[in-house]
């Protein structure tokens, strides 16, 4: 492949400006951390989840009565559970501020540079503005390691139903994927990735923090978080995909990175859409159907099988 064509798709050499940051010298530490995360999560699930199921089964008294709500509440209010709740509150608040900082930084850099929604080419200059772009990109990359704690809190609280394939794939795939962009082509048009994703995470961790504080009555907007995630993926597909079209083909930014973002966005859009359908749309339809059946099967004091209602 001619050099010009190869450089259009993938830089031939790493960017020296990002070399000084921790974990950036080699890809393998990042890959091994993500692999350890996936193996650790599924090992925990394989060992702990059956024990929890067995404990619930054995939680019935010998006379067949289920464990009382009072006993469950007693377990939930144990000191270890309270400690986890405090840690969750602190963690979620910290992540709100961390994500907000990234959003503000990117917006300020866009103000300084005048970058718009169109082509933003790769800038190899080693000046304060570009170094700041690299720093923001690295902090965004590092945030993906911090977000692995989301899974830890689910596991510590026994919320194994929350640790889905979507959840593990999403968290495990991000650090190695972002590493390549920071290593070879920091800055440029991919600024939209940390900007939009961090904005979503400000809202998401606000929700998690409120949930950890027990403010459930104010969390009616949970399903809209999934909608916001899906909107984010659509933005990535359109914004990053423009450099892969004839309209912006001459944009001088390595195309492999926008292409990777588009592929990931499509995969996550499908997965999140499926989750939304399963968690909200089908559940709502089922509830509506049950209500309709309950309303239509009782008429004049009789049910469909013509037996008298007690």
From TrEMBL:
Database matches in InterPro entries: ELO_CS, ELO_fam
Subcellular location per UniProt equals: Membrane
* Subcellular location, principal: membrane
Which key words are in the record?
Fatty acid biosynthesis, Fatty acid metabolism, Lipid biosynthesis, Lipid metabolism, Membrane, Transferase, Transmembrane, Transmembrane helix
Q: What start-end ranges are recorded for coiled-coil regions in this protein?
A: none
Name the protein family.
Belongs to the ELO family.
- Its name, as the record gives it, is Elongation of very long chain fatty acids protein
Origin organism is Taenia asiatica (Asian tapeworm)
